[in-house]
Amino acid sequence: MTFAIHGLAVSRGVAIGRAVLVASSRVDVAHYFVEASQVEAEIARVRAGRDAVVDEIHRLQESITHMGPKEAPHELTALLDVHLMLLQDEELTSGVKHWITDRLYNGEWALTTQLEVIARHFDEMEDAYLRERKADLEQVCERVLRAMKGTASPVVAHPRAARKATQQDLLLDDTIDVPLVLIAHDLSPADMLQFKQSVFAGFITDVGGKTSHTAIVARSMDIPAVVGARTCSHLVRQDDWVIIDGDAGVVIVDPSSIILAEYGFKQRQGELERGRLKRLLHTPAVTMDGEKVQLLANIEMPEDAPAALAAGALGVGLFRSEFLFMGRQGRLPDEEEQYQAYRKAVEGMKGLPVTIRTVDVGADKPLDDSVHDDAHLNPALGLRAIRWSLADPAMFLTQLRAILRAAAHGQVHLLVPMLAHAREIRQTLAHIDQARAMLDRKGVAHGPVKLGAMIEIPAAALSLRLFLKHFDFLSIGTNDLIQYTLAIDRADESVAHLYDPLHPAVLALVADTIAQCRAMGKDVSVCGEMAGDVTLTRLLLGMGLRSFSMHPAQILAVKQEILRADTARLAPWAQRVCAAEDPALEMSAV
Ligand code: PEP
Ligand code: MG
Fold first, then answer.
1. Which atom of ligand 1 is nearest to the CA of 477?
2. Less Cβ around it within 10 Å: N or C end of the chain?
3. Counting ligands in written order, which one lies closest to the CA of residue 355?
4. CATH number for the domain formed by residue range(s) 3-19+178-232+240-275
5. Sheet containing 241-245: order of strands
6. Residue range 158-180: average pLDDT?
7. pLDDT digit string (tens) for 514-571?
8. What is the Cα gyration radius of the chain?
9. In whole numbers, what is the pLDDT of the chain averaged over residues?
10. What is the pLDDT of residue 497?
11. Which atom of ligand 1 is least distant from the CA of 476?
12. Measured CA angle at 431 (ends 450, 353), to 5 deg
């Protein structure tokens, strides 16, 4: 039966495919397709992993038969029996075989998919004892996954995986030749990095806000996604057909043929529109009244630089360096590794400027999925970004040295996140001087950098004089500026309706920052998600903004708005919008 689930629209486009439910803790399991000729070998690989765990349990059983009842209580023996039984369960083994044979999933993916299927059956059981066996099943599967580590078969990207399903695919119910859509309760920004190389055509999560970092990475990948879909991962079953409408934030499950036809059409329209926008690639971003606008890219990894160039970006306005630090089980990148990464980004941009932001971990960007910040009640207000850097001078100096060294290879701008206090600014500048002096002492080459500060805390926006005195440029981080001005957690879907870029207080802070920078002749840009939102381009132009930084996929659509704009007319209109009681209403009145 067809039904719809409403969430938050985070990444445009339509994806149609089969649901792959993945437990949040298992997103880092490898997901790839094997060749048909590898199927038997893949099944054997899972079997070998399982047999290794069975042997382990047998050995344990053996050793406890020699123990007394005190060291080896009856419960332990019974538990081992249960584990053995679960490992040899027919539903598990035949299910794994099915996913490998019929869908060409690699062994680990097949195992975790079947685990999800069986776990649901356990959830539905009346008997509490049986329900609790789910945890045992998860444990034994975890052990099989560990036993399989290091035995992976060569990764083969399925040639058909990236292709959009046509309506005909769906009607024919072709089980392999269709895209897959990942559904999880939650995905962390570190998970998203894995996702970048995976086979999925879109994703849906139960939690998350529009500017949560998970949503931001989805946008950077330009794949349809919906977050904040609440109970989606419970309502959808493994392998259900789903449509993601990334523009409307809607998920349609088990669609009828009429709905499929409609969305197939919408999907094609979207592709045509993107094709049309490509014609603007080499057109300079100049408004109708001759104002030049700088369009820059936001990137997460050095490997994103080619996509930025291909989209016509005139530089990188925000390199979120924290993505180099995530998902490494606490082992941070050393100076050489960071230097190579920054240098790769700088060289990848072929002489255009690259703005490297110092690490911004904390809040919804933990270093590691397994390290949750439970100790602090309010991590978004806690040890995050520059606060974290200043709390660990050795780590901060390492990063600064790496950035300064990369500056020897091209234009580098150094951007500092989350500053608010004069003391923090002084300490940051002192660290930069110290890092430079350390390199000089060792005779290591480094280059000059322009220094910039993010304006993303209301206190910073309200003390601009301080920032304008110490920095060469400012970059407005609207994602956090909105979060902190309105006291709305950007990652919490339950308050997402109150997360409002058009709140008069937010507009006042943004407009004032732009105006003061212009008055002082300092460069200013917006690098939060507002910069890539085409519905806000004219307003930002009207406020005087001439530098926008966004994900490469958004650049051409924003450029189209710029080409149609007349800033002389937009300026008084923007003033009226900012002064209005309800700016959204004022904007729609035009
Ligand atoms: C912002 O806050 O607007 C910003 C660009 O930084 P991030 O989204 O990484 O917090
Ligand atoms: Mg921020």
1. 3
2. N
3. 1
4. 3.50.30.10
5. 3-6, 250-253, 241-245, 14-21, 180-184, 202-205, 225-227, 8-11
6. 51
7. 999 999 999 999 999 999 999 999 999 999 999 999 999 999 999 999 999 999 999 9
8. 26
9. 90
10. 92
11. 3
12. 20
pTM given for the model: 0.85
The predicted structure's pLDDT at residue 372: 54
**d(Cα 313, Cα 137) in Å, to the nearest integer?**
49
Which pairing describes strands 241-245 and 14-21: parallel, antiparallel, or unpaired? antiparallel
* The pLDDT of residue 28 is above 90: no
DSSP conformational letter for 319: E
Give the Å distance between the CA of 447 and the centre of ligand 2: 26
For the annotated catalytic residues, the residue numbers are: 213, 527
Atom 8, ligand 1: residue with shortest CA distance = 479
- Percent of residues in the chain assigned helix, strand, coil, to nearest 5: 55, 15, 35
CATH architecture assigned to 283-587: Alpha-Beta Barrel (3.20)
Instruction: Please tell me the distance between residue 418's alpha carbon and the centre of ligand 1 in angstroms.
Output: 9
Question: In this structure, which residues have their CB less than 5 angstroms from ion ligand 2?
Answer: 456, 477, 480
- Compute, in angstroms, the gap from residue 380 CA to the centroid of ligand 1: 12
Task: Copy the structure tokens of residue 431.
Answer: 């660290």
Tell me what the mean pLDDT of segment 459-469 comes to. Answer: 98
- Whether residue 15 contacts residue 179, with contact meaning beta carbons closer than 8 Å, is answered with yes
Instruction: Output the CA 587–ligand 2 centroid distance in Å.
Output: 26
Please report the atom of ligand 1 found closest to the CA of residue 479: 3
Kindly give, in sequence order, each residue whose CB lies less than 8 Å from that of residue 276, ignoring residues fewer than 6 positions away: none
Q: Nearest-CA neighbor of 480 among 518, 451, 519, 453?
A: 453
- Please write the tens of the pLDDT for every residue from 336-375: 999 999 999 999 999 999 999 999 988 777 777 655 556 6
- What residue owns the CA closest to ligand 1's atom 4? 477
pLDDT at 230 over 80: yes
Q: Distance, CA 580 to ligand 1 centroid (Å)?
A: 26
Pocket test for ligand 1, best of 210, 320, 418 (most atoms within 8 A of CB): 320
CA distances from 500 to 361, 461, 487, 503 (A): 24, 17, 11, 6
Model pLDDT, residue 370: 53
CATH of 36-149 given 3.30.470.20, 3.30.450.20, 3.40.50.720, 1.10.274.10: 1.10.274.10
Q: Which regions of the chain carry the CATH code 1.10.274.10? A: 36-149
pLDDT digits (tens, 9 = 90+) for 264-274: 999 999 999 99
At 479, phi and psi to the nearest 5?
Answer: -60, -50
Intervals of CATH 3.50.30.10 along the chain: 3-19+178-232+240-275
